[in-house]
């Protein structure tokens, strides 16, 4: 499939048609908006407006955010029309983020390391009680308070078929964690997490978690894996065949 067609599918599936449990979806003229109460993040996922209407649209959304006291961002992508939206967002008080790659793997050409049966002790969590292992790993790797993640993953694990959470264990302790979301149409599966405690890096646990998720996605009939990787994981996934589909920018309201 050519890149333009992939981008059309990406926009349709993951920016327009997508639904998020626990969020209200609003279709307003030229925009797709998702809303949840603060401190959760509300956001615009898709924009299709001519340049002449952008100022009015941004002003209208800011008034809505103020009225409902929302934490808010506006998502844009490198393949979107370059119609001045970025400049208007920054002029209205949104912080300009650095572009982050959105990387894709076609599971029809899954490389051998991701097709080989997983040898590491990788377990798919079947109980929300075990999310404590995930939270511990994320907090130690990235720092900060990750109780919000436990709340979010707990809710999503109760949605049938929506989320799979994996933990890799080594030396009888949780060492690496990752998860994958499945959209209903069966085309894209989205990877998140992928964090390994420093003492356990270099043992192939990150790749084992990728393999477990790739194999599950294949078994469920999905065609593509998507991920917005950290700088640390980008060399690994590039080596495993992921390529850059587009670049994302998430403009957060300051």
Q: Overview of this structure, please?
A:
The chain is an alpha+beta fold. The protein folds into two domains: 3-96, no CATH class; 105-248, Gcn5-related N-acetyltransferase (GNAT) (Aminopeptidase, 3-Layer(aba) Sandwich), CATH 3.40.630. Helices cover 33% and strands 31% of the residues. It is built from eight helices and twelve strands. The protein has helices at 3-16, 54-68, 85-91, 112-115, 131-142, 147-157, 205-219, 234-239; strands at residues 24-28, 31-35, 41-47, 71-77, 94-95, 100-106, 121-124, 163-170, 173-182, 188-196, 224-227, 243-253. Strands 1, 2, 3, 4, 5, 6, 7, 8, 9, 10, 11 and 12 form a twelve-stranded mixed beta sheet that branches. The longest helix is centred in the N-terminal third of the chain and has 15 residues, at 54-68. It is globular, with a radius of gyration of 19 Å. The mean pLDDT is 95.
Secondary structure layout plus pairing:
Elements: H1 3-16, E1 24-28, E2 31-35, E3 41-47, H2 54-68, E4 71-77, H3 85-91, E5 94-95, E6 100-106, H4 112-115, E7 121-124, H5 131-142, H6 147-157, E8 163-170, E9 173-182, E10 188-196, H7 205-219, E11 224-227, H8 234-239, E12 243-253
Parallel strand pairs: 3-4, 10-11
Antiparallel strand pairs: 1-2, 2-3, 4-12, 5-12, 6-11, 6-12, 7-8, 8-9, 9-10
